[in-house]
Each structure stands twice: as C-alpha cells, then as structure tokens.
Design a protein that fits this description.
2 copies of one chain form a homodimer. Helices cover about 40% and strands about 20% of the residues of chain A. Chain A contains 8 helices and 7 strands. Chain A has helices at about 1-25, 40-55, 70-75, 95-100, 145-150, 150-155, 175-185, 200-215; strands at about 30-35, 60-65, 80-85, 110-115, 135-140, 160-165, 190-195. The first copy, chain A, has a 7-stranded parallel beta sheet with strand order 3-2-4-1-5-6-7. Chain A is globular.
C-alpha cells in the first residue's frame, strides 16, 4: 500500500521534472542538482565554485532548506541571482518546488543553474528536478562506509566531491576505500578530492564543470 | 493531496508505535530512538555506551540502515543481542519495521533497547517507533547552523550529544552557538559534549542515561 503511494508520487514528479527539463533545454541552461548529508559543505563548495567560474559563466542558484534563508544570504553576497525554497517539513526538493521559482529568474541571462538540495543523503536522489546531472559531496568526517550504506546517491551522481580533505589527519577515513566502493557502485563516477577551506582540488573541479557546461552535456 | 497522504501514513504509524510502546512498558523496557545525519557517530557512540553500561544494564540494539549489515556486525562484537533492519529505500525506521524484529529478542532479559535509526537529520524525527525518548547526535564537523536549519529533530529530542569535539580546533563550529540555538528551539534539551575518539564526556552521558533507565522515565 505504502509502496504504491510512493511510486505514484515519484511518477508524478518525473513528469514535472521532464517539463522543467524541456524549458531548461529551450534556454540552453545547464542544471546541476547538488546533494549531500547536512554539513558536508554544499554551500561552501557553491561559494568557491561561483568564485572560480563567474568570469566564464553566468550562474544562478536555487537554495533548498527545510527552513531559514541563511544559505541564500550567503550566496547573494556573491552577486548572483538566488532564490530560497523553504520546504516546510519536506526532506528533499521536487520538480514542482523548482517550477515555482521560475518567474524569479531570467533564464536567457544564465548559463548554469545550481540547485542546492536539502541536506539528506537519501531522499533527494529519488526526486528529479529536471537537472542535467546530479553532483554529490561527501565529507571525510562522515567516514568511508557511506557508499556501501547509501548507494543510491552514488549510483545516480555524475560527480562525487570528497570534501574537507584538510581534516584527513584527524579522522578515521580512507579516501581509497571511498573511491573503490563508489566506483564499484558507479564505474562512470568522476571523483574529485577537495577542501573548501584551503582550496585544494577546486581548480580541477571548476575546470571539469566548465567543460561540461560549455559542451552542454553531463557525460 | 500529497500532504493528506503523508498525514495518513504518520497517523497509521503513530497507532503502531503506541502498540509497541505498550509492549515495551509491559516488559519494563526502556527504549531510545537514536538519530543523526550520516556519519555523525551513532554506532561509535553506541559501542562506547555499551562499554560504559554493560555492567549495570542489559542492553539490546536494533540497527537501521538502507542496506548493509556493517553496523550490526560492529555491535555484535560487544556481545549484546542485535538485529539489523535493512529498509531498502526508506530513509527512516517506522513502527512496523521495529515490530517485525520482536521475535528476535527476549525482552524479559533486557533493560534498555537502543534503536539506531537511518542516518538522516529530517525524516526519522517524524516517525515514532514506540520509544521512551529520542536522542540525537550532531558532529561538530557538520557546522553550527544545523539547529536553525533542521529544527524538528532538536525539538523532538530529550538529549543532544555534540560529538567529535576533538575536531574543534580544525573546523569552523561554535559549540556555544549550537547550545544557544538548540535551547531556543527546545529549552528542556539536555546537551552533552563528547568525543567517541578520546572518550571525553562519555562518563557524564552514560551516568545520565543510566539514571533515566533506572527511573523508567525520559524526563
């Protein structure tokens, strides 16, 4: 019974996400769905990515949070268009929520839209928003058993950013194990090791992302 | 429409959780629902708590994960009864899942049952399992903005363990801010600062928990 309900919701969401996608394609807008656990560093990565790419790409941001507008305020300081979605209780963004922000943006003046999802390693991976690709972040402070325990997000993502590598001397976490288990789940996954604190690895990530946006292709 | 469906599910779950609770009460069994983001340290805390209390209390554990039995294997090494629930895709445990483990335990020989929920700072707080109290963990690596962004779990919990305080010199996180924001949401919240790595604060936590179990009261 419950499974049926969930499947209906997912199918209805897929249809709306497809409509979003058509609109994005019409405006040649590349869209990323950025996902992670709470506190893995999505907003920090986004700040760094905007710094790295704003000379080359016109970027817009949708911030998803249960409540508060703190993340949107952080992004607004970067002088890019940003809209905050407060989901109330919902633990993920869906296609409809994204759709309701469209009138706030001028897509003709944007190359890249980043959707920062609610902090949650589970549900966001199930709900498409119309993105070209999903990107996920894992902080080394979360430990190296996460691919095995939360495989769906690793399977669905095109890129994995292993963040906070500056903490590696102080935590029990093998980056090698994350790499091996992630690639077993998703052999096509592109993996970057980064630190949003000291900037390590961000140039490589920004270069790769810029290439994908310019090519208009996630793969 | 979707809201109605969700409410029905929650109400049905509450009824099952109440049945679980009656059964627990009949066996004088104290039950904790342990919740956090992925990688905040639930299993490590549980290992440490078993070490600290096994002379005084007979403990059993239910491990909830999307998939894998890694956490149950870790707990089994402590020689306490443990059952692993794999939720498939579900991002939280519910009353029915807990109910299905009952035949695996002898409640007459247990004082404390700890239910380790799926790693998720959102949904588990909405689904009762029949617990006496909810306890949550927040790792300092997740940052100090979590009470403001994920208030429900802070509101529902009786105790908050601020974990990985050994990492404080290396992360941008104010424990004072976590304390202030958490207590604004939930003035009754009992807060412990702990490190499962070096053992700091665990004696105080174990002492408090033992008192609650012996009194048979969460408050």
């Amino acid at each position: 019974m419950k499974i049926t309900v969930v499947r209906d919701i997912l199918e209805a969401n897929d249809r709306i996400a497809d409509l979003n996608r058509e609109l994005f394609d019409r405006h040649h807008l590349f869209v990323i769905n950025l996902m992670s656990s709470p506190g893995a560093g999505k907003t920090s990565l986004l700040e760094r990515t905007i710094d790295g790419l704003k000379q080359d790409l016109r970027i817009g941001v949708i911030e998803g949070d249960i409540q508060s507008s703190r993340d949107a305020e952080r992004i607004a300081r970067k002088s890019v268009p940003v809209v905050q979605i407060n989901t109330g209780g919902a633990c993920h963004l869906d296609g409809n929520m994204i759709r309701e922000t469209f009138h706030e943006f001028n897509f003709e003046e944007m190359d890249l839209l980043v959707v920062e999802n609610v902090g949650n390693l589970v549900c966001p991976a199930e709900f498409k928003v119309g993105e070209d690709m999903k990107v996920m972040i894992l902080s080394v402070a979360e430990g190296d058993d996460k691919p095995m325990k939360y495989p769906l997000m690793f399977r669905e993502s095109k890129a994995l950013l292993i963040n906070k590598i500056d903490l590696l001397p102080y935590v029990d976490c093998s980056v090698e194990r994350i790499r091996e288990d992630s690639l077993r789940i998703n052999p096509e996954l592109r993996i970057f090791e980064v630190s949003c604190k000291n900037g390590n690895g961000l140039e490589e990530w920004c270069g790769w992302l810029k290439g994908r946006v310019k090519a208009g292709r996630p793969g």
